[in-house]
Amino acid sequence: MMSNNNDMCFKGFSPKTFDFLISLQFNNNKQWFEENKPVYMEEVVKPFKDLVKDLSSCMHAIDPAFDTRPEIGKTISRIYRDVRFSKDKSPYRSSVWITFKRLAVDWKTDPCFFFEITPEIYRWGMGFYLAERGTMRSLRELIDEESEYFKQIAALYAGQSLFTLEGEKYKKVLDKSKPEEVL
To answer: How do residues 145-169 score in pLDDT, each as one tens digit?
Structure first.
């Protein structure tokens, strides 16, 4: 961990960072983006790279297998939207995030940490992204084995207001014999 703030690279996001993201929302086309790409690189990518550098040692303390390379496509999201799989056909995303996850082989089976900014909000957290069926089955089995401990954690969560749970919910209850707080 960093012990001296002078050693830190990340100096925060400037108003220009958010100005760029807001302008991109209203000018989401190749010509505008190419004309403003230097602003993107300096005001968006550079601070994110600095943030990744500063967080890397902390993230490796959590999991030495985390990928902490401060690169687009590794820890930093791509700005280009893959419109083949998106309902939104605009070519660029107006949000940018970093994700600390294991390398490609493991990243769908293990939780990851993220931080995201948009023109409207910022958010951070941890969880699974595209968790596979086997991963979720293992998680449910762990909850079954440690249901009292899980209930304690759920009660701690219920007693706070800083964090929220997000994500997709199962369309059907997998085990109706379980108490509601364990489901």
So the answer is: 988 898 898 889 889 998 888 877 7
